[in-house]
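FIELD: query
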Amino acid sequence: MLSKNLAFTSLNRIARKAQRLDREISSMKMVLFSDHHRGKRDASDDFVQCEQTYLAALNYYDEQQFELGLLGDVDELWENKVADVGDDYTEVMQAERKFYLTDRMYRIWGNHDDYWREEIIFDRYMGHSFKGLPVKEGYIINVLENGQRIGELVLVHGHQGSLGSDRFSTISRFFVRVFWRNWQNLIGHKLTSPTKNLEIRSKTDRVMYEWAAKRSGTVLVCGHTHQPIFTSQSHLDQLEELKNRGELEEAASDLLKQKQVEQTHVEVKGRRKPCYFNTGCCSFSDGDITGIELEDGKIRLVRWDINNLSRTVLIESELAIVLQKCE
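FIELD: result
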């Protein structure tokens, strides 16, 4: 169940209290990933098939001197005990550590790894690789142009307002760990509540959009639903727009290669503001991953392909223009 009022209250609180990072639009280089759901390499682990793809992406972004933002649900702590995650992914941890050691890593907790909100717990179990790394509920990037602020990027996981994920997370964790994990291991079925329930996903996207649309000069970037969103449009929305303009047959092939999860619309009343983006996830069943890039004054939705471990820009826009349209 998702409460719009609870979501707005949580997001407003984050917007007031979140740490702010100033970044010049022309020199900003940051990649945002979410929803790895790393576990223990068993049948319930959603990340196993994406490990090599993610490693290829991390190596590329490290070489290009990007900052790395992880927007929650990196570790799967509903299905696993906190002491049981991390050790099975030594190479991945070492690759992420390169960003941490050079102060290029920012991490946000999601509903499936909300234990990490407690610094003492995170340092106890992750301190061997990321000692002292703050794990926040959100960050805000002040986007500057020649030193003048032109807008902001609000980074959160996106579960805010979900009663099962936000308010009653302890009960949810208990159910998943005790009952669901054994069922997953038996039949190999994956746990992804908003990704499987199209109604929940659709409402989540709508609520996240509506919160951002009410603010001037704000772009909200989330994860959680596992559905890539760009300028407040899902893949389905983009195809529908091309069809309405009579351009579907001429659409770039890369656009048509976006992740083929079951699609839902981002329902918008009135003029659509390009204020909501979603990274997708790093746990697609085919081994691909998606993320959001910020580079060269642009914001991009990218896909990394398991077959050739390569990066494809699915769609991009000038970030300054996006922020201007969000006024």
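FIELD: remark
The mean pLDDT is 87.
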